[in-house]
Amino acid sequence: MKHFKHTCLLIAATGLIFSGCRKNETIVPPVLTPVTNPEPGAPYAGLYMLNEGNMGSNKASLDYFDYTTGIYHKNIYAQNNPSVVKELGDVGNDIQIYGNKLYAVINVSNKVEVMNVADAKRLGKIDILNCRYITFANGKAYVSSYAGPVKIEANAPIGFVAEVDTTTFQVLRKVIVGYQPEEMAIVGNKLYVANSGGYRVPNYDRTVSVIDLTTFTELKKIDVAINLHHVKADSDGDIYVTSRGNYRGIPSKLFVIDTKRDEVKKTFDIGASDIVISGDTAYVYGSEFSYNTGKWTITYNMVNVKTETLLNTNFITDGTEKLIKMPYGVTVNPATKEIFVSDAKDYVSSGTLYCFDKTGKKKWSAFTGDIPGHIVFVKANK
Amino acid sequence: MRFIEQSCSLTKGLLCIIVYATWPATNTLAQQADTIKQKALREVSVTAPRATGEVSPGQKMQAKELGRLGSHSVADAIRFFSGVQIKDYGGIGGLKTVDIRSMGTNHTGVFYDGIQLGNAQNGQVDLGKFSLDNMEEIALYNGQKSNIFQPAKDFGSAGSIYLTSLKPKFAPGEKTHLRATLKTGSFGLFNPSLLWQQKISDKIAASFSTEWTSATGRYKYAYKVYDSLQKVAYDTSAYRRNGDINAVRVEGGLNGVMNRGEWSAKIYYYNSERGLPGFIVNNVYGHVDRLWDRDFFIQSSFRKDITKRYSILLNGKYAYDYTHYVAPDTAQLPVNNHYRQYETYLSMANQYALTNWWTVSLSGDFQWTKLDADLKEFSYPTRYTTLVAAASAVNFQRFSAQASILGTFVNETVKQNAGAPYQQKFTPAVFISWQPFPAPDLRLRAFYKRIFRMPTFNDLYYTEIGNRFLQPEFATQYDAGITWNKTFTDKWFTIAGIELDGYYNEVTDKIVAVPGQNQFVWSMMNLGQVKIKGLDVKAKAGWRIRQRLDMSLKATYTFQRAQDFTNPGDLFYGDQIAYIPRNSGSLILAADFNNWEANYSFIYTGERYNGKENKRENYVQPWYTSDISLGKQFSYKHTHFHITAQVNNLANQFYEVVISYPMPGRNYRFILTVNI
């Protein structure tokens, strides 16, 4: 039986070599990095950054930059909400604040995550299939969704906008809009939503739907251009709409719609992948890929929204744009006018958030989660 | 009549060579016993042309060993080889592809009965589709099979897997073999199969094999996560949905021998419908996507020694693959696509023996491949590939060497849009082997190979993603190894062997997906450089206890440092590439006692990252599974039965190989085989 003993020993030894290697799976803790000097009295106490994460990877994540300490907190959601199964979810697409609540639209997870602004702890979730963007008015949230009924002739579902009660998180009403609706803006009692038709390549949608908020019906479809995406309102009744183009012959453009007449009144022939309006200035960048040449064109520009003129200058003035591989979001701090640009790089590794002062000089940068793209500012408690 | 678990059905005198060339002949003793019982066996046919001595041994597993591992598919068995990683999406119907030495799944060539299985569309062969039911041997070669008398295609991959189906072999007086098998167990598996072999004449034998696989694919998975205080943060479990499969495989073949030659013909049909269970992320626990596959091919091979010095080998194949993919999710873009892939392949290989130690060969292949798909603005590409390989081998008692050069010429035409430009590449390979001492126990060997993989049709033409400007992706391999094998005739210890390989690979112009304007639109680019340093270790031992209990042990260990050196500016520069563990290994312990057999197998995959960047968020825990099986053979009135019971993933470990695709926990399988 000696050999039998040897055999047993061998099995046991092999077991030992390999055992003990697997530990408990734990929540990934936040990474805290001081990135700038503390500003205890800052008008905005901080900002939340929603990172999209690559589709199917469940890597949507939330970061927080604290102005009062100058510390960037990367990946805070899981730590603050350890009991939420599979964390924040898959592909974060929009983040906004309304009242004391923080809303994160998690596209592939088919939900809007509602959290406390103060600590990003979960208050609830709103289940909406294939949800994209969120905006607010009169105590209601409006969420755009790709997932309406399938229209046979189009072979892709038509989209809708859902009206959601911000206290009960219940969907109250729905209105069918165009195909694959994206961002919305509200001017007066009207909601404007950009319909992309991105699922219907090459038969893109080319309209902005105008919704009456009282009746919650579509008043009109404004013909603009193919593959629309962002919608931002300025302070004097105009909305700015971006078109992605078709990555081939038709380039990305920026359009201005007069909301009194609900018509396009001006077109800017500039690449417009994202836009933010702060005061009288719109900050725009374009990152355009062409299948014809296999090349990228990245541009930065500014528009005076009062005079509706192109300023033809980059808002980054110190050459930092050369370091930015794939601009994926632009935001401006409403008080300090600091400009924030996020870099998604190759979409499958940590991104970078750049902070520029109002003259376009880099103040600091921080590593973010994967595909940083959506920022919201948190007002300081007075 | 009885089926021979064919393995070392070779004469005893050849045994030492086989042990050298055939890694790992685990159950040598048991098989020897079988062989003796079977008396003189006559091979009607052999798979490969006569080997002139493999300079670089492959890793092999034969029917008997495959049977006792109880693996369901070829992919499950290959996990026990060293230097490979299986990308496994889980379940019976889940996609399973093989990455050899971290060069990427597209660099792996898969050959079925000597002819390559093509997939011009995505360049990957789903090894989960290939059943072990009628498999005689699975072999894996790094570089290439170091045999110069082979089609030019066989020189054309960075690593190759050869699947060889069972060949009829009849003992004197035998005319018919019939074997029926039923497998059942977890996942709602119902898997009956039938094998029929018939001797038609002294020179021709026919075989027919069919199999039906039906499974619900339902299995439990769980995610348990702890918080920083090691208290359970969440603990959830659910059942995998939409993982069902219904597949039928039918295969028929003829094998013939002639004066100084042999021939074979084969027809293959596979038809399946399956659900694609998809990724599991927050708030999403099921998908509705479905896939239909219909694969058909007919192939034939002919080999003859024309003169004492000159031999030819002819191969031909026609294949038609149909895929229908439906994603009926009304919340998403509804997809309903049909793909049709056509392939015709012709090859001629010539070998001429200049002297009794020096041979030269010349092979020429032509392949025509066409893809039709009802995608918008699809290009409808056709690829014409011509391959020419010239090779030479010298074989001495203690030294052998081979050198080959492969010329690849690729033309493409498209019906619309623009086609990829003409490609013409020449790639060399050199293999040497040296036995330093008169005793044949120890051998040293080395190889160098440079090869590339063409961009696939998806890489080039997939609507909205493809990039026709793509260049081939190159892989360069350097390998040095040592083999030591010894058989003992008079000791309780019967066999021992160890094999070590150190290697360095470089993948350049790697084809990677890069994002387009948003993350849902990507494009393919030649962007990527990976350097791989690795060590493969294989060890085996066999011993016999009290003349009755035969035991064998086989262990493998793989170390791989595969680093991304694409751009020094990247955060992940120098990081280990995604899904490649630094440490991995396997172990198989088998025991035979009278008519009983027991098997324990273990697989270990070390920690790794599920993204390019080696950061905490991408960290993936190691996983390791233990499988056990117990089998017994018995006879009743000339009918032989074999029953096996298995428990896989004994420790019920929940893990993921691919992010968001949970693998099954503990599962069971029962197999009944009847031989008439």
UniProtKB/TrEMBL annotation, chain A:
Q: Which Gene3D superfamilies match?
A: YVTN repeat-like/Quinoprotein amine dehydrogenase
| Highest taxon listed in the record's lineage | Bacteria
PROSITE patterns, sorted: PROKAR_LIPOPROTEIN
Q: Which InterPro entries match?
A: DUF5074, Host-pathogen_enzymatic-act, Quino_amine_DH_bsu, WD40/YVTN_repeat-like_dom_sf
Q: What is this protein called?
A: YncE family protein
